[in-house]
Amino acid sequence: MADIERQILQRVDCDQDSAERSRAVENGDKDRPTDLDEGAGDSMPVVSHDGPQTGAKGVVADYHHAQREERQRTMQEAAAAKAAYADAVAMRSTEDSSGGKTIWTKDSADLVAKKSDDDDDDDRFFKEYRQRRIAELSRAAEQSQARVLTDATPEEYVEIVDQMADSGAPVAIILVNDSAVSRRIEGFIRAAAPKYAHATFVRVQAADCGFVDADLVPIVLVYRHGELESNMVRVVDRLPDHVSFELRDVVKLLDSVLLK
């Protein structure tokens, strides 16, 4: 069955290519825009995007913007594949005498039902995983007297900021990449964390939040009561040396924003 479908789809593609070439010769105008070009502006919604944000909600907005674009591309590809398959089936299927059903009807219905079930299972899995992950992060924050760096996604870090809002305890978000400077400041923050037992430290990959400019990273954001209190993009600018800073320099910086 798979070989037959493959031959059908190949034949459809060849027929479509031949038809398009014939139309181009008959019209004698290769530069005339196609219907797809004319309708492109209507089919692709314009998404306003002002670049990376430094607030919790803004960072996640950037993260969701990238996800929406990826989902849109996937949906368009799926729609194109579905249309091609439907055309192939219409050309080669035969109707029986009772009710007009084709030999493809049952297989197609089974495939649609299976895909729907798989999508529901995926949604449940990711929802349950996210809930478990947030619960684990919350327990870790509550049980640890010295809150060392906890890895989190942009969505998870927003949850942590919201959950710690009532306590008034500071939440320090450290956005890093794979640079030597990020690894250095991350190591010093881990070493200094026991001094700030009242604070929660969370590490997030800067690229996941839309910060692709390596010169801006590492970034330190400090929240209290759910609000951004200290915004230190390119935090090395606040240290005596951008590369060779020491533990005492990082401790002095953390003192200034966490011991208030």
UniProtKB/TrEMBL annotation:
Stretches assigned to the Phosducin domain: 53-242
InterPro entries to which the protein is assigned, alphabetical: Phosducin-like_reg (IPR051499), Phosducin_N_dom_sf (IPR023196), Phosducin_thioredoxin-like_dom (IPR024253), Thioredoxin-like_sf (IPR036249)
SUPFAM superfamilies on file: Thioredoxin-like
First and last residue of the signal peptide: none
Feature: compositional bias, Basic and acidic residues: 1-35
Region: Disordered, residue numbers: 1-57
Family: Belongs to the phosducin family.
Annotated protein name in UniProt: Phosducin domain-containing protein
Naturally occurring in which organism (per UniProt): Coemansia spiralis
